[in-house]
Specification:
Order of helices and strands of chain A: HHHHHHHHHHHHH
Radius of gyration of chain A: 27 Å
Order of helices and strands of chain B: HHHHEEEEEEEHHEEEEHHHHHHHHHHH
CATH superfamily of the largest domain in chain A: MetI-like
Number of helices of chain A: 13
Number of helices of chain B: 17
Structural class of chain B: alpha+beta
Radius of gyration of chain B: 32 Å
Largest interface: A-B, 51 and 45 residues
CATH class of the largest domain in chain A: Mainly Alpha
Shape of chain B: elongated
Number of domains of chain B: 2
CATH class of the largest domain in chain B: Mainly Alpha
Largest sheet of chain A: none
Oligomer: heterodimer
CATH topology of the largest domain in chain A: MetI-like fold
Strand content of chain A: under 5%
Distance between the termini of chain A: 13 Å
Largest sheet of chain B: 5 strands, antiparallel
Chain lengths: ~350, ~450
């Protein structure tokens, strides 16, 4: 027993270190890319100089100064500004690691240009403001994408080879197209031709006053983007999960259960669903994590004010603190999920044991 | 292996496979035709050529085959120039001056009104610009003065449909309507022979040439966009680019992952651990955001993107599935036998391990192609399309950005979208059929 615990502890520790290292490397790479490997500094310094020079030359109070003094004044102000932004230090190695450390300790700091709708420049507040809309849209869509395909796949695996089954397989390739692609078709049909649903956005303008009307309006705006997300992976999910069920339902122990005369319902629940849940769960959780990033293009196409759009805007404005902030949280969420999955596997499927397999007696 | 390929030849048993191969075959043929008929530089000139290249094309014109579905005959673009079908007469009037007359007659057989009217005038003269009077003759014999004493610049364009003064004289109808309207029925255009007349008294040595363009509402097989570009250029060129991008990305990542995972699994130890680390790190790096960042900050050429897509996908999720399969194959008795007779590492990896797993993974190679084709479109819709080349994604981006859906120019959006879908369906049909051929376990279930 003690051996088991120490083995488990060792495995957990190794796994944890492994994942933390992965997060550190991934975040550092983001820091490097988002700063163009330090190249962004040169552009920013030129911008600062231009702004400062403009302010000084436009200021009537300094008009009398001789050119040398004016130049000295500009140089001094530029230096102050660079120091304020921490740019007097070299980007590599010192500042890049500072960025990394701050990101890892979730000290997200202030955005350079972006503000939240409430007017704050804090990266944390910008993210928190966009998070609910993204969660609402993709949470709804993904809940649907988990339960509907699961039930449909179970249903179809019982009717292998039927017309419905064949039709679903035929529709599986539809998932090669991304959500935004279906979104454009939906906009074309329901917003442009029939004019029954809104083109995009979060609520009607003017914003409805009562909470109920507000919720109704948001719901109406959510129909098309959520349908687009669902369409883009519904049939592929059904197809691949159906295949899992078919493979596992021909295993020997299922045959045995059938021979014992168990009802097909309890066979499904106890013998088929249990071993197939881990891959399905992994699939679903990984999708759930990528939800954090929102779907950049889908949110852009539908003008949905979520995290994906914020991220895209941050890249367009080269607002590095926001880019790094969103990435680091994504990294953490992914690492925690992957870590948790190892244990969930062991809980759901009794054949999987946590830890190196050879040691098991 | 051979047995499997003879099965592959029996296409009649797999109609989906045959259909998929036919679709992709058509795309390949179109691509080859495009690359020969419209070489790279020509395509770039036609797509990015600037104002001169597209001057005579109508703006946002629907494809010509729209005509088949409407009862009316939709107007097409008519071009009359003094250098071909127009006539030019000169008459000496003494004082070293001449009376110059240019007649630009044309037949208008269409229902509805043209989209726009423009007169391009080229003049050579010394000293001050000559003055010309422009008038318009309708089939029912009316004459409308367009402009009197217009000073002709060396390269002059008279935007007839934007002439506010003329509009006022045409009882507030836009000139392209007012000049063609049937006076008996204000809703309809008058069909028949029209003429634009330009008269000018000019000094000797002065030359004038004029070209009238009556822009239609339909143009070419694919229509035009808001910048008057013929969409056919982009639709044709999109095919080879989509094929090359999709196939190169799929084959590049699949092959690299395949070889690396085989090597890693066989060698085990440090190599295997390093690969697993790389996979874990790569899993945390989000693909699309990195592509967007590189596109905005460094370079957005389609080849850079292709390289980056391959690099970031090598240690992707498929590394894990490949590894699992190789781990199983590694334990097979025939591998042990090979080792026993002294086969080296590379021989075992390339001759024993990889051929065994390849058929199982082949369908996956084909199935991921559409997702890469759509990735190119995704980047283009974010404004990160290749700066030079016309692609389907860039046409989509243009349509979305210009509000084609809002304004009702559906063909502009639907043409590239349907081509993307067709290509995706082609590869999917092949992929799923191959899956059934090579992984037959499901057929027996």
């Amino acid at each position: 027993m003690r051996q088991t615990i120490s083995r488990l502890g060792k495995f957990t520790l190794v796994r944890l270190v492994f994942l933390i290292c992965a997060v550190i490397i991934a975040v550092y790479l983001t820091v490097m890319v988002a700063n163009m490997g330090g190249e962004l500094d040169r552009i920013r310094k030129a911008e600062i100089r231009e702004q400062v020079a403009m302010q000084v030359y436009m200021n009537p109070a300094y008009r009398q100064l001789p050119p040398e003094e004016l130049q000295a004044l500009v140089d001094g102000l530029v230096q102050d500004e660079e120091k304020r932004l921490g740019m007097d230090q070299p980007f590599f190695p010192k500042r890049s690691f500072q960025y990394l450390w701050r990101a890892l300790t979730l000290e997200l700091g202030f955005a350079e240009q972006m503000t939240s709708d409430a007017g704050s420049q804090q990266v944390r507040l910008i993210i928190l403001e966009r998070l609910p809309t993204t969660l609402l849209l993709f949470g709804t869509a993904n809940l649907f994408l988990f339960f509907v395909p699961l039930l449909a796949a179970l249903f179809l695996s019982r009717r292998y080879g039927s017309f419905l089954d064949k039709a679903t397989i035929a529709l599986a390739p539809s998932s090669a197209a991304p959500g935004w692609f279906y979104g454009l078709f939906l906009i074309l049909i329901f917003a442009s031709i029939f004019r029954v649903l809104p083109w995009g956005g979060l609520v009607d303008a003017p914003v409805p006053e009562t909470t109920l009307a507000y919720a109704g309006s948001v719901l109406k705006h959510m129909v098309l983007p959520a349908t687009a997300v669902v369409l883009s992976s519904l049939f592929a999910n059904i197809y691949s999960w159906r295949t899992f069920f078919l493979i596992y339902s021909s295993d020997d122990y299922v045959e045995l259960a059938r021979a014992k005369g168990l009802s097909s319902r309890s066979i499904e629940m106890r013998y088929v669903l249990r071993p197939t849940l881990p891959p399905i769960l992994t699939n679903f959780l990984l999708v759930l994590i990528t939800m954090w990033m929102g779907q950049i293009v889908l949110e852009t196409v539908f003008q949905w004010p979520g995290l994906g759009r914020a991220f895209y805007l941050a890249i367009q404005l080269t607002d590095t603190p926001v880019i790094i902030g969103i990435t680091v949280i994504y990294g953490y969420l992914l690492a925690v999920t992957v870590f948790a999955l190892d244990f969930v596997y062991a809980l759901v499927d009794p054949r999987v044991r946590v830890g190196p397999a050879e040691r098991r007696a | 292996m051979r047995k499997r390929f003879t099965k592959l030849a029996d296409l009649r048993r797999y109609p989906a496979l045959a259909a998929g191969i036919a679709v992709i075959g058509i795309f390949v043929c179109v691509s080859i035709y495009t690359l020969i008929a419209m070489p790279y530089n020509e395509a770039i000139r036609l797509w990015r050529g600037g104002v001169g290249v597209w001057d005579d094309n109508p703006q946002n014109a629907a494809p010509v085959w729209f005509d088949l579905f409407t009862r009316d005959r939709l107007p097409r673009t008519i071009i009359v120039s003094s250098t071909d079908s127009g006539t030019k007469t000169e008459e000496q009037i003494g004082d070293g001056a001449k009376l110059l007359q240019i007649m630009l007659p044309f037949q208008y057989p269409y229902d509805g009104f043209p989209d726009e009217l423009k007169l391009f005038i080229q003049a050579t003269y010394e000293g001050g610009p000559p003055a010309a009077t422009l008038s318009w003759r309708t089939p029912d014999g009316r004459t409308i003065v367009l402009q009197e004493n217009r000073l002709i610049k060396r390269s002059d364009v008279y935007y007839i449909s934007q002439d506010q003064d003329l509009r006022a004289r045409l009882s507030a109808m836009s000139p392209q309507v007012g000049l063609f309207v049937d006076s008996a029925n204000q809703e309809k255009s008058l069909k028949g022979d029209y003429e634009l007349l330009l008269t000018a008294e000019v000094p000797q040595g002065c030359e004038l040439n004029a070209k009238l363009v009556v822009y239609g509402r339909i143009h070419g097989v694919a229509g035009t966009d808001n910048r008057r570009r013929d969409l056919m250029v982009a639709l044709l060129w999109g095919a080879p680019i989509a094929l090359i991008f999709g196939v190169a990305a799929a084959v590049g990542t699949a092959l690299a992952t395949f070889v690396l995972s085989a090597t890693g699994t066989w060698l085990g130890g440090k190599v295997d651990t390093a690969f697993q680390w790389l996979t874990q790190v790569n899993l945390i790096i989000p693909l699309l955001p990195v592509l967007i960042m590189v596109g905005y900050l460094y370079d957005r050429s389609i080849w850079t993107m292709l390289g980056l897509v391959i690099a970031l996908n090598i240690f992707g999720a498929s590394m894990l599935t490949n590894r699992a399969m190789f781990l199983q194959a590694k334990e097979s008795p025939y591998i042990e036998a090979a080792q026993a007779y002294g086969a080296g590492n590379s021989r075992i990896i390339f001759r024993y391990l990889m051929p065994r797993i390849a058929p199982t993974l082949l369908p996956q190679f084909v199935l991921v192609v559409p997702s890469f084709v759509f990735l190119e479109a995704t980047l283009a819709v974010l404004g990160l399309g290749d700066p030079l080349l016309p692609t389907w994604g860039k046409v989509l981006d243009g349509a979305v950005a210009d509000g084609a859906l809002l304004k009702g120019y559906y063909y502009w959006f639907l043409e590239p979208a349907l081509l993307l879908m067709l290509l995706g369906i082609g590869f999917s049909l092949i992929g799923y059929s191959l899956d059934r051929i090579f992984n037959p376990r499901l057929r027996t279930v």
